[in-house]
Specification:
Radius of gyration: 28 Å
Number of helices: 18
CATH superfamily of one domain: 2-enoyl-CoA Hydratase, Chain A, domain 1
Helix content: 40-55%
Largest sheet: 9 strands, mixed
Shape: flat
CATH topology of one domain: 2-enoyl-CoA Hydratase, Chain A, domain 1
CATH class of one domain: Alpha Beta
Number of strands: 13
Amino acid sequence: MAKHSYAHIASRVLNTPLLLEPGYARVFFNALSSKLGIRNLYDADGKIEELGKLHVKMGIDDSRDSAAAQEYRPYRLVNGVAVLPISGTLVHKHGYLQPYSGMTGYDGIIARLAVALEDRKVNGVLLDFDTPGGEVAGCFDAANRIRSLAAQAGKPCWGLCYDMNASAGMALASAADRRLITQTGIAGSVGVVMAHASWEKYLENEGVDVTLIFSGAHKVDGNPYQALPEDVLDDFQARSDKLRGEFAALVSEMTGMDVQAVLDTEARCYRGQEAIDIGFADQLVNGNEAIEVFADYLSSEGRTTITTGGMSMSKVTENQTQEQAPAANASAGGDQPAATPAPAASADDHRKAERERCGAILRSEEAKGRAGLAEHLAYNTDMTVEKALETLKAAPAESAAGGRSPLDAAMETAANVTVGSAGSSAEVSEVDQVMGDYYKATNKRPAQTA
């Protein structure tokens, strides 16, 4: 745009009233500041930092009214869920908090996540992915940092593939505690790509000779002025293979998938339910309802208790205090001397074990056709994988239930069970007892059998 055009814009926006929303006004004037000769921007609160640059007011000022407090949050807060968009190409040291100019920086993701996890009004973080991937530099460190920050804060961090988390995006998504995906979402591409451009023939045709003066046999490996030598190609291939192995190991560690299973995907991308079947995602959702799904989970997390045969199967939250466990042991053991407590596992260890348990249940063959029951056993009980698979195997599949949900069909088998009866455990199967207890806990009434 010509300089006189900027002068024309200046005459229309400076020293004249404007009907602009304050937030957008900051964006507008900051974007054109260099063109309009604006050195500093000020508002009622003082100087405005360069918009979008990696500068965060650490900690949220809850003393301000809600609209003003929201202004200082580098994320959207909805029903206790902090939504962090991750879109476009992923790059190292981008220097911007938010996605900017088609790119999202690993540094910006970590900075926003750290603030969100410290926000007392945030109960959980949803990473909203729409990215084909990006740079290797900084990617694995960012994934590990996402996992460690969420573990330290003790707040759930979920990922939403809406509608793509591929390659580097898959690395970051794997760090989430649970991965949601839309029916058209694309996940995967656990692989590595390199490109080499040779200008040798072009320069030769143009009559241009390039002489490389170097010291060190590999100093100019991969230079664009000559075709790629065979030994250099082999070296690049070996590096790519090694990096792919490290990528697969990261995804395996984060998701609980087997390393070989990740490698066997051969960097394919999977859509919707396919991604769940392979293990890259956990739950199919409508993208417009994802925040609500997460918020519902947060509102009920750790509150569901199922009692089977006198045994409590509460899903214990990570916020349970150390004092609660000894109290429970004392009430169960009477005057027996307390055993020497074993070293406490870290919160990260608990989260990893729980993810692996849930993943093994949800991705099992027994869960096919019984998705509702599988999710109930995974998230609302502390059943072992073996016991959960036994329960799933005994429950009727959807195809055998005349179109009813697996939960309702399974619950029908327990319709006449006397829940909580001291002597019932010897008269009914454990599967019936579990479903009968579910019926009591949820107060849902399944169709009665004759």
